[in-house]
Each structure stands twice: as C-alpha cells, then as structure tokens.
Amino acid sequence: MRHRFLHLDPELLRGLQTLEELKRLFQQLLLATGGDAEEAMQWMRALQAHGRISDEVDLDAFFAQLEREGVVQPGADGAPQLTGSGERHLRRSAFDELFGNLVRGGAGGHPVAAAGEGVERLPETRPYTFGDDVHLIDPLRSVHNALRRTQGSLELREEDLEVHETEHLTSCASVLAIDISHSMVLYGEDRITPARKVALALAELVQTRFAKDDLEVILFGDEAQRVPLDRLPYIDAGPYHTNTREALQMARNLLSRKHQPNKQILLITDGKPSAIRKQGQLYKNPYGLDLEIVNRTLDEADQCRRQRIVITTFMLATDPMLTDFVEKLTRTNRGRAFFASPYNLGEFLLADYINNRRRHLR
Known about the structure:
By secondary structure, this protein is α/β, with parallel strands linked by helices. It folds into 3 domains: about 10-80, no CATH class; about 120-165, no CATH class; about 170-355, von Willebrand factor, type A domain (Rossmann fold). The chain contains 11 helices and 14 strands. The protein has a 6-stranded mixed beta sheet with strand order 9-8-7-10-13-14, with helices on both faces. A two-stranded antiparallel sheet has the order 1-2. Helix 9 (about 290-305) packs parallel to helix 10 (about 320-335). Mean pLDDT is about 85; it is low at about 1-5, about 105-120 and about 355-360.
C-alpha cells in the first residue's frame, strides 16, 4: 500500500506555460510516486481537472512528446513506464535541484589526513622550509616580505619566501544506506521521497563530478538489500522494522572490497534499530531500546571503526530514543551525526560528502 504526501511548488503550478515547466512538474511527480510514470500522468490530469494546470495545456500532446523523446514507453501491459533515458533524466533533475551550484565534469577528489604533497593549491600560505616545492612559492607575498624587511630594497632572502598550503586529494568509496521502514511514510510526513531524491542526486554527482569515486546503495527494513543505481527511482518504504545492524554489516563487507583509500557509510534513518537477524530468524522489538538489538548494532559500528570506515548518520526525526542510539553509535564509531529535516537533507549530505575530513598538508 502506498502513502503519498505531496508538496508541489505553487509558483511552478501558477507559471506552467512551457514544455520545460511541464517537464519539471512531471519530474517532481515521478520522484513522489517512486518512478511510476502512469501515476505521475494521472496526477497531472487530476491537477488539470482541479484548475491547477490550464485547460489550454494539451496533456495528451505532452505525454506523446515524452514518448517521442524516449523518456517513457509502453510497458508489457501497455501502461507507460520510464525508459533508461527517463531514469537518467530523473537523476539529473534531482541533481540540478539539490546540487545545481556545482560544476559538472572532471575527476573528483576528497581530502584525506595523510602525509605527502597535495595536488590542490590553497590560498593560505606559510613560511618556506627546506624541501618545499619551489612551484608552490607565492611570488607576491615573498616580494612583499622582502620589501617590508629592507624598507624598499628588493633583496630577497630565504626567510622572505612563502609557499602555498596544499591538500592531498584522493578518491572515496561510499555506501548510502537508506531506511525503508514503515515510519518513513507515517504520521503525515513523507521522508522516503527526500531520501529517494538524495540517492538519485548523489548517484549523478558521483558519475559526473567524482568519476574516481565508488557509490553503492543499500536499503534496509527487516533486512538489508543492495540495489543497483538504475533502480533508485523506484525506492519505496514498506511495512518493515529497522535492521540497522544488517545494513552496517552489508556496507562494511562491500567497502572491504573497494580499493579507494577513503571509505564511508552515509546512513539515513528516522528510527531506532528494532530488528536483527538471529540464527537465521528475524528478532524484532519495536518497543523502546532493546539492549540486544542495540548492542549488536554498536558492535557492527565498532567493526567499521576498526576498518577505518566512518559512519555519518543523518537523522530525519528527533525521537529521544533515536537520538540516544545515534549518540552511542557516533561515539562508538567516532563518526558524525546530523539532524536534517526532509527539506534540507540534500544540503547536509552534500556538505558532508565534499568537505569530509579536510586537512592542510605541508
């Protein structure tokens, strides 16, 4: 059973005039319906019936245009469905909405706390020391130091030299673990659509800007499951508990096979862990913080720490039991945690993904 709590930009609805604006609305509805093209089209017809889309707009012609462009096509049952091109359009739309201020293209880099020369020159400078690369010398600051020392005579000495600070940039392997338990669509607040949008946008970000990075996506409810990137538009929540332990275990196993030096888990959840797997059976307790469930989940977080895998948790709720668990998880893993509402989740995740562990190197 599906639960939909849609918020559509009223300015977009008032200004629907062009084909591009209709496409933007269609993309928003695709995100909200879990990639269901037929349902998105039904929503557009309903909006027109309620006067939110002008009667002058020919929706049949618009839907035919989407088919000609290869965004949708008839499925085996004749119903419209997204094509591979349509899925790419949806990823790009999510990316543009959340990360549109980034420049596309180019190999990605992530700073790491490691000795050695960086590949990116920073504006900050420091005094030159023997062994520094002469290409990093800042000529303007060095000359200025000499003029100030000699009161106007250009007599350059080693003590006048300044060099640019640098950062060491490297690639990163990430696992995005998304909670798909029932609470993600309960109580009148849709949390799964923002999580779906972030997954799509992050996939597009990695593929277009951070080409050397590796991204895996895991969904976790009663159990954890790995999903390919082309299935991200169809992520949906279900009548599940929250098996955070299995999600961390699967993420750790995936990352152990990656060659990138930086490894991290990005955990999106709105509830405390309420299930684990015991002797092949699902053990669940949705009431309070079950110590066995919590402790086995924290054991997995500690294993991640031992393998130098950082867990960053994005909490979509402020439930005291969730907050208590996340504090313990963060201390155990020595990771990070953020409270992010469904409306600013993308901003928090982007800032953490790009600025993770920046460090100046000498």
